[in-house]
User: Fold this.
Amino acid sequence: DTAVSQTPKYLVTQMGNDKSIKCEQNLGHDTMYWYKQDSKKFLKIMFSYNNKELIINETVPNRFSPKSPDKAHLNLHINSLELGDSAVYFCASSQASGRAYEQYFGPGTRLTVT
Amino acid sequence: GDSVTQMEGPVTLSEEAFLTINCTYTATGYPSLFWYVQYPGEGLQLLLKATKADDKGSNKGFEATYRKETTSFHLEKGSVQVSDSAVYFCALSNDYKLSFGAGTTVTVRA
Assistant:
């Protein structure tokens, strides 16, 4: 069983479109995250939810909107896609929020905007 | 703010060579420190962690010791294998999020 899963794995779309990426974890964790990995492999936190409540919202354009329908799911919706949004997006989860908890990552979604 | 600096790659080694990847951090308080590994085409996996000063994390032959006096968490392995080829990330957590270093690409040749 996959602990943290994401769909789709690859997403190719045109500028201006709206797209969503879905994430699910079956670990029973309380906290979920979205990270963006750029072409140089640099990883940066975008959002974090704890028990469906937003606790981290880094300086991300408001075209990006996370939605957490329940503790096991955290989806990412992106409006009006731009070329600079091309990246790999990783979902992650941890047992709870706090410095000592390791995060478990999904396989990533490679988004290509043309 | 919190930040992590790790040695730039890429690093290319022969099998059975000794590997060291340097990692230093800047943070307030007492962060937890982690090493994650990313194999080609995959997500990140936790390799090891340490949550307080002088803790040593170890896994799969890799080790790192939390050194508060030098704000470092260097990763070492005594004898690498081809299967260790991957990107290695040092990271710290001081609150709700992980702050990552830039990653070091390691290639091990047979």
Summary: The mean pLDDT of chain A is 93. The CA atoms of residues 11 and 111 of chain A lie 5 Å apart.
